[in-house]
Design a protein that fits this description.
Two copies of one chain form a homodimer. The first copy, chain A, is mainly alpha-helical. Chain A has five helices and two strands; from the N terminus they run H-H-E-E-H-H-H. The first copy, chain A, has two domains: 58 residues, Multidrug-efflux Transporter Regulator, Chain: A, Domain 2; 73 residues, no CATH class. The model of chain A has no long low-confidence stretch (mean pLDDT 95). Chains A and B meet through helix 3 and helix 5 of A and helix 3 and helix 5 of B. The first copy, chain A, binds a DNA duplex (30 and 30 nucleotides) through helix 2.
Chain lengths: 134, 134
DNA sequence: ATACTACTTGAAGTTTACTTTAACTCAAGT
DNA sequence: ACTTGAGTTAAAGTAAACTTCAAGTAGTAT
């Protein structure tokens, strides 16, 4: 079975080693062997786990909920409803955050249009644009 | 000119009064009069400002950058390039965050499909679904 | 007059997700 | 033998954006 050092994992996921140790500390990464009782060794299961963490983080799930998910997942038959509930609740939140982001982005882009015109007006000495007419 | 108390503003923006005071403290809200030297009074200009803050927050601009924007905006002719740079930089970041959110959402939705099937399988005593076949 | 309510202050505390620090441990290379 | 490099630990520190606290004030209601 292929094994990896912490710096390999670090490069793989663009995460500092300290973060990977931190994830282990809070119980997000489990069963990390320490060879010679001091050096960490990772395998495919940790890579899978980190990929899942990455996805959940992108969906804005807080670390403690990601951890709870992995706990529930160990007995998915018992916990399928709980997991489903959790995922659906987060789906709503994620969709809301996407809507906010769209609103915010539109505002940013309006500012960009406006200040592009301001910049041009300043350079050519022409009158400044009107925000409300955009 | 219409004026508002802190609790009216609080309700208007769904922000606790403490947050509105905090924004004043860090310089995001300016020129807030304190009548009888103790009670805050807000007007339309503060409402405009808070609306702008809300939009920028949705675009994920940190408060110190929002503050910097308002400072630059006071002399937009001088600072149009700086503002434009700031908005464009943030636009890129916001778009990136939206992509992440989309990825995360897709992952969430796959989990929802999977655990819906798990839940059904458990209820009907049929075999569990396979994650990789979804 | 007293109580009540809405508001005030500065300072300290909270949360999340890390990051940094200091002192230490191996194993390998020169 | 010594240095170097990668890794280790527990504990403290950081950053952002608030939130809570304790003690106090001003205007209104009873």
């Amino acid at each position: 079975m292929a094994t990896y050092t912490i710096s390999e994992i670090s490069q793989m996921f663009h995460l500092p080693a300290s973060t990977i140790r931190y994830y282990e500390k809070i119980g997000l990464l489990e069963h990390v062997e320490h060879i010679n009782s001091y050096r960490r060794v990772y395998n495919e299961s940790h890579i899978d786990r980190l990929n899942a963490i990455e996805c959940f983080k992108k969906a804005l799930l807080p670390l403690d909920e990601i951890k709870a998910f992995f706990t529930y997942e160990k007995d998915m038959e018992q916990n399928s409803e709980k997991i489903l509930q959790m995922m659906k609740t987060q789906e709503v939140k994620t969709v809301e955050r996407m809507k906010d982001l769209e609103t915010g982005l539109a505002h940013l882009q309006k500012k960009i249009r406006f200040y592009t015109l301001v910049d041009e007006a300043v350079k050519h000495g022409t009158p400044l644009p009107n925000w409300d007419e955009l």
